[in-house]
Every structure is written in structure tokens, then in C-alpha cells.
Amino acid sequence: MKGLIGRKLGMTQIFDEQGTMIPVTVLEVGPCYVTQIKTSSTDGYTAVQLGFSETNEKRLPGGKRGHLQRAKVPALKAIREFRLKEDEVAEFNLGQKLLVDVFSEGDFVDVTGTSKGKGFQGGVKRHGFNRQPKTHGQSDRERSPGSAGAGSTPGRVYKGKRMPGHMGHERVTVHNLRVVKVDPERNLLAVKGAVPGPKNGLVTVSAARKTRGR
Questions:
Q1: Full set of structural domains in the chain with CATH
Q2: Which one of 31, 53, 112, 130 is separated from 161 by 20 to 30 angstroms, measured CA to CA?
Q3: Phi and psi for 171 in degrees, rounded to 5?
Q4: Could you tell me which of 28, 23, 3, 8 has the C-alpha nearest to residue 178?
Q5: Closest CA to 2 of 213, 210, 208, 203
Q6: What is the pLDDT of residue 95?
């Protein structure tokens, strides 16, 4: 299983041996600790729970603190699960420390993070609606979404209708990013392309589930 928790540091560029510029996102990945191993007999499914980012144990709730103490790992801020197959779970031990060297250059990974929140936005910015004409009596509502549906039938607005509302701050996964560079000394991982979320945003990095590279 190739999967770790990390945080986004920002974007930069790397030049390969041919002098081609590659835009990359730098991630600080690991060290992560195995905080729980879930099996079909005990939990109904198989997964490995990892913890990341050491902190003062006084900052953690009592339940979370006790959970980590039972695993004999440091106080950790973030905890995430990675679903595995039955035979893959046996490779891990409670309290095991995982570092960025589980990945190597040339690997393809999926990166999941929380996109930047944009607050409350109108239909034009949120969904790319066209504005309405400024003439023919429309003087003060050119950016309004217009009609939301028919009157008598169905007499309501369909669920899922694109309307103004909270934009961003959603779980987003970018698939098939190529690992360009691995720095084990500083636990850094450089992947080609953009990664969702702001700087210092929490991300999970796992082996790509698709085969087509970018």
C-alpha cells in the first residue's frame, strides 16, 4: 500500500535533463504513524488508519489522546484512513512509522484535498452563467440567474438546481499526478501539476487507481 498524509507547501518548477520546465507542487508527506488496523472480523472492512503532524497532546480531545496512546504513537493532529485488501493489511504493525520513501520518482499518485473556500457566490461566478441583457427593461438584474423552473408543473424547484450559494471548500481528488522528485531527508514530494487546497492545506497521497499518466 502506498498512501500517506501530508500538507501542501506550494508550487514551483523543476527542469529535467533535457531542459524542459515541469510545473510541480511540493508536498511535505510524512512521517505518518499507523494508529489503527481495521479488519473484517472487528470492523466489517479492512483499512489502515494513519496519523500525521505531531502536536502538544494538551491540544487534543481526551478520546483522541487515549486512542493514540493505546497505539503508542505521538500526539498527532490529523487522522485518515486508507482502505486496503485483506492481504495488504498484514503488512502493517500498530505504531509503525511510514516515511516518504514509500514513493519513488516516476510513480503516479492521486492527491485528495479540500479546495479553497470562496464564500457565497452568485450563479455567474459559481457556475459560469451568462449575464442577462442590460437593455429591454433589464436595468438592475443582469447577473441574476433568471427563472428557476415552471409554475404549475412541477410547481417546485428540482433538487440539484444550479443556484447561488457556498462555493468551494469541497473534497477534491486530482488523479494520476506523476512523482517528479522525492526528498527523503526533508520528507518532500514533488508532483507534476496542481493540487487542490491552499498552502499548508492537509492532503492525502495514495497510489493512482488509474493507469493513464499525465
A1: 3-118+171-207 (2.40.30.10), 120-168 (no CATH)
A2: 112
A3: -70, 120
A4: 23
A5: 208
A6: 87
